[in-house]
């Protein structure tokens, strides 16, 4: 997590605005809905960490530069529900890295990049996490979902770029249903 004292050297904090951050959704038979949230729709990170990528879903991705850097976004559930992170879409050009997904300060799964350095070309080659993520029962109200650059192997200085995070909800919510009141794109995270 980023420090709360304003010292943000090497730290990327992004509060993804749910009302502006979904690129696509899909209703699933049985009443659930899958929504993809674009990393570049986030706010609160250094603008130098957003990079144009022609193969990204929204043609942009957000760079998590070092261990502990994260993207965070808030959702507000209108009622208790099951939420499942189905995937994280990312790119990397360098050594293996480990990322994790955290829901309300509880890790629900990890994913790994592979050693794939190709002189920067692989930054535009996106992969979908093959990690297995736990479903989470969440109460009605506000919740924070984070994608964290957990660990770079062999001190890889290049980080990882996040394109999108895909969530499945047990109910067919719309983005408006999940938008937190008064968030206005700058949601106050727990402990801030």
Give a quick set of tags describing it.
192 residues; mainly beta; Jelly Rolls; 8-stranded antiparallel beta sheet; 6-stranded mixed beta sheet; 14 strands; globular; disordered N terminus; disordered C terminus
Structural account:
It is globular and about 45 Å long. The protein has helices at 18-21, 175-178, and strands at 15-16, 22-28, 32-38, 42-43, 50-52, 60-64, 70-77, 81-91, 97-103, 106-112, 127-128, 135-138, 141-152, 160-169. Strands 2, 3, 5, 6, 8, 11, 12 and 14 form an eight-stranded antiparallel sheet that branches. Helices cover 4% and strands 45% of the residues. A hairpin with a 3-residue loop joins β2 and β3 (32-38). The termini are close together. The protein has one domain (15-178): Jelly Rolls, CATH 2.60.120.260. The protein contains two helices and 14 strands, in the order βαβββββββββββββα. The protein is mainly β and 192 residues long.
C-alpha termini separation: 11 Å
Which CATH architecture would you pick? Sandwich
Please identify which CATH superfamily we are dealing with: Galactose-binding domain-like
Structural class: mainly beta
Largest sheet: 8 strands, antiparallel
């Amino acid at each position: 997590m980023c420090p709360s004292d304003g010292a943000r050297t090497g730290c990327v904090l992004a509060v993804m605005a749910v009302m502006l951050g979904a690129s696509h959704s899909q209703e699933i038979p049985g009443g659930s809905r899958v929504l993809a949230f674009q990393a570049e729709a986030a706010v609160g990170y250094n603008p130098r960490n957003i990079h144009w990528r022609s193969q990204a879903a929204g043609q942009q991705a957000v760079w998590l530069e070092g261990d502990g850097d994260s993207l965070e976004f808030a959702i507000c559930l209108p009622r208790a529900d099951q939420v499942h992170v189905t995937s994280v879409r990312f790119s990397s050009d360098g050594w293996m890295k480990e990322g994790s997904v955290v829901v309300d300060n509880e890790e629900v799964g990890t994913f790994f990049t592979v050693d794939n350095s190709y002189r920067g070309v692989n930054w535009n080659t996106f992969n979908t996490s093959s990690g297995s993520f736990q479903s989470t029962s969440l109460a009605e109200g506000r919740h924070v979902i984070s994608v964290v650059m957990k660990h770079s192997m062999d001190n890889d200085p290049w980080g990882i770029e996040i394109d999108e995070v895909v969530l499945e909800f047990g109910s067919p919510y719309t983005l408006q249903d999940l938008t937190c009141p008064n968030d206005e794109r700058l949601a106050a995270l727990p402990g801030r």
